[in-house]
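Q: Entry one of two.
A:
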Amino acid sequence: MTGGPTDRAVLVERPGAHRLVTRPRPEPGPGEVLVRVAAAGICLSDREVYEGRRAPGYVRYPVVPGHEWSGTVEAVGPGVDPGLAGRPCVAEGFRSCGTCERCRYGETSLCTAGYAETGFTEPGAFADRLLVPARLLHLLPYGSDLRAAALLEPAAVVAAAVRAGGPRPGERIAVVGAGTLGLLATRWLAAHSP
């Protein structure tokens, strides 16, 4: 590496091959923010990326994984509110267009503009820093527990599933699996009193 600051990242070069790399620090472009990663979770889909079990259209090697994360905005690109610097945050992983019919209905994971997602087709959070579109940020209160905030992405997935299932009070529901999603599901379901 010559000149300028550098960052570390876990790079999955191809299925079964990963290494810790040093790379030039990313610079935010128009509409982007640079986030200093505080915490990143490991999901089964990250393992699928490493093992090569993710469908080819849903991963682009080489890739830095990491879609469950939290951090602090460190720098902003042109056209982004400079007041975001220093804010704790998470961000949506799907890099949806925001304008197609699916996006307008809130179904951003079904964006018709094509699939792009942090940690799968775009560099993720298994790095010191990552770039994300500012429009995908979700700001957190100052002083937030950023280790716990890294669970917001899987918690949102479970919340959507529970909501779609429409649990009713008094219903019997079984949660199979005691991993992160299973444990979060029991908490969300308990909030609905099934």
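Q: Entry two of two.
A:
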Amino acid sequence: MDQTRVVITGLGALSALGHDVKANWEGAKNGKSGAKLISYFNAEKFKTHFASEIEDFDPSLKLDRNEIKRSDLYTQYALYTAAEAMEDSGLEISRLDSPFDAGVIWGTSQGGLSTFEKEMREFVENDSNPRFNPFFIPKFLANMASGMISMKYGLMGINYTPVSACASSNSAIMDAYNYIKWGKAKVILTGGSDAPISEASIGGFSALKALSTRNGEYQKASRPFDIERDGFVMGEGAAALILEEYEHAKSRGAKIYGEIVGAAMTADAYHMTATHPDGLGAYQCMKFALEEAGLTIKEVDYVNAHATSTPLGDVSETKAISKLCNGEKTKLHVSATKSMTGHLLGAAGALEAVFSIKAINEGIIPPTINTENLDPNIPTDITIVCLKALEKKVKVALSNTFGFGGHNATVVFKELE
């Protein structure tokens, strides 16, 4: 049996809740809503006028002038959180046996969509001299965040970007975990970023009727599991994790936040945008991840649910969790931190991984805010943490992400023993 262990030695986070891990965790613990009226453009042409924007973001605090000039906002978010995670880890690449022992696997859903939107608009509108910016192509490519992180830190090993819609960063974390387990790397910087608060993205999701239209009380719009939920709140940002082979981390005296002990991916094979109504793919994904971890659902203390506040998705996920419990009494609690951060699309899993790890470290389960009247279709054997955080010893946390196209990805985190 493979005894290689994979631990987390660095964290970085950026969302509407704050510009670092500390601010994001404080916001999540205290039930802070990041929703606000959109300031990036005039959203009144759409049915949804709000999103969870990041306020006062200054990339120059961690990026140089050329990095900013040559990168889309989603890449800036990636570089920003990668810098925090690298500093947090105390990792010195120059002290590795080889720079090829360290890599980057970074998820995104939309990549540089804002750059694509801007460049196409300017090209079409400039009748006298239509031209594209020389950095147009590299700025919007989905793999560029991964590439620029590797260039910044000299990480010469595995480097690529999985794209599986809103499951992207969990897919990235799982791949990083596996490559280290397989002995293909000692260290991988992983996570995800998205900057989807643009006219094309808000307009497109609005046309799909996926977004909440609660414009009069937008801070209460994201309400997973609530009977009055009407869609998700768009969010933006990034989160980064340094994954490291345990013996390597121990030998350098690294601070260790916890361990990844299992991960899995499945497909619903059901619908382009809707989850399977009975959560069959989600159920099997969680089951596979727990089997790899050598755990049962009775040993899980916390599930950070994908729960986006959509009518179908929240119910199907809880049905899957209930099926996993199989009528047995468990100690697990469920919460949906998207109620505070909004839905960061391809970055969601990475930020929720940070919250899951912090729940283990601090013994606090962040709440699902705004959930006042549970949907009666939610299975009654699922205990959802609503409105206020719960103090509880968390040894094992499971984090779910599901994406358009039927992608499911689950990661299992455990307290280091």
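A: Comment on entry two: The domain at 263-414 is CATH 3.40.47.10 (Peroxisomal Thiolase; Chain A, domain 1). Residues 73-89 form the longest helix (17 residues).
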